[in-house]
Design brief:
The protein is built from 4 helices and no strands. The protein is mainly alpha-helical.
Length: 113
């Protein structure tokens, strides 16, 4: 038994965490990375006096609204449990993993300053 995963639990919960990480990684690499790179390019091209809402395109704002609506709907229609936990794990890991592009861009920016 792997000692590092004792906090997850045994059996099904452990596999669901690993499934969530796998699904999140796939989503990050295939979907979110492309969006993050395009958004970062747009942000770097903005003027200093640009409205903060212009940081994201209208498509990204629509995606945020849809994700919020989906999350609220899921919380109201389902009981907390392993399935919704796995979904949250996948979404959270995907967002965290894709945020690396923003951190890399920020580090490059502060090194130039």
């Amino acid at each position: 038994m792997v000692r590092g995963f004792n906090w997850i639990g045994a059996g099904m919960p452990r596999w669901l965490v690993l499934l969530g990480l796998l699904l999140g990684t796939v989503k990050s690499l295939l979907v979110l990375d492309k969006t993050a790179k395009k958004s970062l390019q747009r942000i770097m091209e903005l003027d200093d006096n640009t409205c903060i809402g212009a940081v994201y395109s209208w498509k990204t704002w629509l995606l945020v609204a849809l994700m919020m609506t989906f999350g609220i709907t899921m919380r109201r229609l389902t009981d907390p449990g392993m399935v919704i936990g796995t979904l949250y794990m996948a979404i959270g890991w995907a967002l965290f993993l894709s945020s690396r592009h923003g951190w890399i861009q920020w580090l490059q920016w502060i090194r130039r300053a």
